[in-house]
User: Fold HypC/HybG/HupF family hydrogenase formation chaperone from Actinacidiphila acididurans.
Amino acid sequence: MCLAVPGRVTGIEDRDGTRMARVDFGGVEKDVCLAYVPDAEVGEYVIVHVGFALQKLDEASARASLELFEQLGLLEEEFGDPWRQAETESGAEAEPGAVTGAEASAATWAAVPKPVEKEGAR
Assistant:
């Protein structure tokens, strides 16, 4: 399944005349083209589809979407399990009783501070 996923811009550079960003999707970082969102800045959230940032997004909406995607298992489906991938690439095997990547990912998202709605904001 292909999703347009929100992520936080962690770095920006010019690569062969193209503005590129490093974008964090809840622990998985990817290189993303900023050609369609040239005004994106470090710390802002963008919606990304097939390697291209399509638009900027406010933090509360980005976090709500990421939390929902995580609950539905769509982030792991889209990006894979980064802990399992690193384990596989290193040739290491998990110890019996070790926390799996999916469990660690869920714990990480549970620990992310959620935006507090201001009274009367709706």
